[in-house]
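Hello,

Our lab assistant flagged a job as stuck in the queue for most of the afternoon. It eventually completed. Since we weren't sure the result was trustworthy after the delay, we are filing this so someone can double-check. Below is the sequence as submitted and the structure that was eventually returned. Let us know if re-running is recommended.
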Amino acid sequence: MDQRYILALACAVLPGVVWAQDGGAAVGVFEGHADVGTVLHPGAAQYDAARRSYTVSGSGENMWFVSDAFQFVWKKVSGDVTIAADIAFPSPGGNAHRKAVLMVRQSLDADSVYADVARHGEGLTSIQFREEKGGTTHEVQSNISAPERLRLVKQGNYAYMLLAGEGDEPRMAAGSPRIELRDPYYVGIGVCAHDKDAMEQAVFTNLELTSEAPKASRQPVLSSTLETIPVPGGDRRVVYATEGRIEAPNWTRDGAAIVYNSQGHLYRIPASGGRPEAIETGPATRINNDHGISPDGTMLAISDQTQDNHQSIIYVLPLAGGTPRRVTAKAPSYFHGWSPDGKTLAFCGQRDGEFDIYTIPAEGGEETRLTTAPGLDDGPEYSPGGEYIYFNSERTGTMQIWRMKPDGTDQKQVTNDEYNNWFAHPSPDGKQLVFLSYEKDVKGHPENKDVMLRLITLADGKITVLARLFGGQGTINTPSWSPDGRRLAFVSYQLQ
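-- returned structure --
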């Protein structure tokens, strides 16, 4: 039966239902609708005023890679915006990756800059985004499947995904991509069949669309998202999202779990997601984000500020938990790396007003100073074979990545660009470094800044961007590669 006839019949028998097909007619609170990209079957949109629901039908092969094909119901807005709805697919079956989305989008071009919260047919829910026109789509996959209510917030240059189960309020559920949308832009709802020959339908109920800015009197709430990303790049996955600050993930040597710090304590969480468990650390209750796991996977080195006037001291203890054993006599000392044989610790220490790189036996003893250049030297970490120690130094005026031999000789610069680069972590095969980059006007490594995770291939010096995010202090302070070198763990932050 012809689809236009079906829609006309529905309008005749369902009072209060307004259908619009393949045109710019207003639909509920939205100004118009249209098929974006190339579709074989025209999409349609229905608004039921009595039920406050929108039913959207869409075709299209995909919303991915460098172009999209879907039915979009839209309104033009400026400034910040929030859109929320309960989303359901009324018909079972269909493509597992059919998508119903809440979206902000620069234009109706198929390759436009955009961000959306996408509910897939199989339950997967993610925030998808294209950072530049004609660029590749990326996503951050939530660890929440088939949520009842979804919310997309565009605030400044960030897009946020909040999800809720039945009866709950939406909570932050993923890291937030950084995208730039010029005023005015489009906000709306959409459906993609993920099959060019099919039509799919989704129902959006209890829809809310607001453009109110946050009240100035309200203190923003900080949330943290522990994520992983494949290397050399790809789609990010959420391991754990929570209110408050968590920092500095270390992947266990068996790849099964991730260790992080929060509020002075250490926690272990399955790398696939789950419930965090506290690690017993005895009297050490002010642990900071400088910690790491020994090469044999049995011990933890930590930096704790409980003693010595709350200055950081390095300790070691069993990975399973226990009473810490003090290693450094002097403070402040901040752990950063184990030698490959597990016998030596590399750290940053402040002595006589200068921050430099030091090593010390893991069993304790005399520390050895390796750098003497004026200014801050920080973040030392051994290469997997022990040939070098990588570190960051501001001796040339901006913070850049350097390397030296383990005895401190042959110090050479690795990066030299317009960013301030921190915390270089060598890959398990020693062929790449991941590091954190701040803009050139940012001093130190503060929290809550626009930053990038970048990757350098040591053979040719080529640098690529893994992710752009809101982060900084706590994002990747210490070693965070998976043992197979395929993924990187990091923490992103959200202020709302």
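-- support follow-up --
The delay was a queue issue, not a problem with the job. The result is valid. Residues 302 and 438 are 25 Å apart (CA to CA). The chain has two domains: 3-210, 222-495.
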